[in-house]
């Protein structure tokens, strides 16, 4: 499948997900037909205090696989960018943490998700937020303009992850932090899983191996890289991912069990320029 085909399939799936949020029938990462409440990837990511501090629609729209703002250090006055911001829950939580002088940007390519994010912003009455339309492979912000990049279960959806990491490096200020939740794989997974479009748009098939994630970040110029598992998916979870997609679930689920996990990925852009391969063009 070409990168363009992946992107079109992802956009279509998340446009539908945004529309379904309005009737509280979300379908999200992990299993194309799962309801959010029982989904092993997306359920129970936020504590009650966090959930209560944003509009209900932002919680209902949450399609992530972690809680990056809980694990990222955010300070008042900082600029945060959320790659693939969806309904905006992490943008709103970040905006509160960097207020009053800081700002949180949400970047998404899907119009329906941007509309949902903006609606949730209005309901929350939070002003230091801006939603931008665009692709994470081509971030519409200047070089060296962001303190912290967060993201929640989006990099795995990209067909060009090297470019996402190069773009993240470019827009971060020297010393800026990459603090991302994502699905990663430990070891190898069967080819039939890798080749499934439905599993790709459900945040499974496009997941990088944890060592590949780290080496792609290093290639982009990042340092202090760590990939820390936050939730490992067992055989029952694997059954849920694979169900209803034409697989022999009994044969495949045990091969997949324990290999997929949600992880928090940290990295830092070096403070000082260390050579042409790790500096942005403008430095
Ligand atoms: C799994 S949802 C996660 C949404 C949000 N981060 C959350 O935690 O609820 C993926 C989101 O990323 C967006 N997305 C996927 N690929 C993208 C890309 N290449 N560029 C920009 N947005 C993208 C989708 O439109 C969708 O809103």
Structural class per helix/strand content? alpha/beta
Tell me the strand percentage band. Answer: 15-25%
The number of distinct helices, counting runs of at least 4 residues, comes to 12
Please report the total strand number as a whole number.
Answer: 10
Percent helix, as a range, is 25-40%
User: Which ranges are low-confidence, i.e. pLDDT below 50, for 5 or more consecutive residues?
Assistant: 31-36
- Distinct small molecules bound, one entry per kind: S-adenosylmethionine
Shape: globular
- H/E element order: HEEHHHEHEHEEHEHHEHEHHE
* Whole-number mean pLDDT: 89
What is the terminal-to-terminal distance?
Answer: 37 Å
Largest β sheet strand count, sense and barrel closure: 8 strands, mixed
Supply Rg: 18 Å
Describe this structure in words.
By secondary structure, the chain is of the alpha/beta class. The protein is 37% helix and 23% strand. It has twelve helices and ten strands. The chain has helices spanning 3-21, 48-52, 56-60, 68-71, 89-98, 111-124, 161-171, 191-194, 197-201, 210-220, 235-242, 249-256; strands at residues 27-28, 31-35, 79-83, 103-108, 129-133, 146-152, 172-185, 208-209, 223-232, 260-268. The strands form two sheets. Strands 3, 4, 5, 6, 7, 8, 9 and 10 form an eight-stranded mixed beta sheet that branches. It has a two-stranded antiparallel ribbon with strand order 1-2. Helix 1 packs parallel to helix 6 (111-124). The longest helix is centred in the first third of the chain and has 19 residues, at 3-21. It is globular and about 55 Å long. 49% of the residues are buried. The model is unreliable at 31-36 (pLDDT under 50). Residues 7, 10, 14, 29, 62-64, 84-87, 89-90, 108-110, 113, 135-137, 152-154, 157-158, 203 line the site of S-adenosylmethionine.
């Amino acid at each position: 499948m070409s990168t363009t085909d992946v992107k079109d399939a992802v956009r279509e799936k998340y446009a539908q997900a945004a529309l379904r949020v309005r009737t509280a029938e979300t379908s999200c990462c992990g299993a194309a037909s799962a309801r959010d409440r029982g989904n092993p990837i997306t359920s129970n990511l936020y504590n009650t205090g966090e959930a209560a501090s944003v509009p209900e629609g932002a919680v209902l729209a949450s399609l992530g696989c972690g809680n990056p703002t809980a694990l990222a250090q955010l300070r008042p006055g900082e600029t945060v960018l959320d790659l693939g911001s969806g309904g905006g829950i992490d943008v709103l939580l970040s905006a509160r943490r960097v207020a009053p002088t800081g700002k949180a940007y949400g970047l998404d390519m899907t119009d329906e998700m941007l509309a949902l994010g903006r609606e949730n912003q209005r309901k929350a009455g939070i002003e230091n937020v801006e939603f931008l339309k665009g692709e994470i492979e081509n971030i519409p912000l200047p070089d060296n303009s962001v303190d912290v990049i967060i993201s929640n279960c989006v990099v795995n959806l990209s067909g060009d992850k090297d470019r996402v990491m190069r773009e993240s490096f470019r827009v971060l200020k020297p010393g800026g932090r990459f603090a991302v939740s994502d699905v990663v794989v430990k070891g190898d997974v069967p080819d039939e899983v890798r080749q499934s479009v439905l599993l790709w748009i459900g945040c499974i098939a496009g997941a990088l191996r944890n060592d590949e994630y780290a080496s792609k970040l290093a290639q982009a110029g990042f340092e202090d890289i760590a990939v820390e598992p936050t939730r490992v998916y067992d055989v029952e979870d694997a059954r849920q991912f694979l169900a209803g997609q034409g697989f022999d679930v009994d044969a495949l689920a045990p091969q997949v069990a324990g290999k997929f996990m949600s992880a928090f990925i940290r990295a830092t852009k070096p403070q000082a320029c260390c050579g042409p391969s790790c500096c942005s063009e403008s430095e």
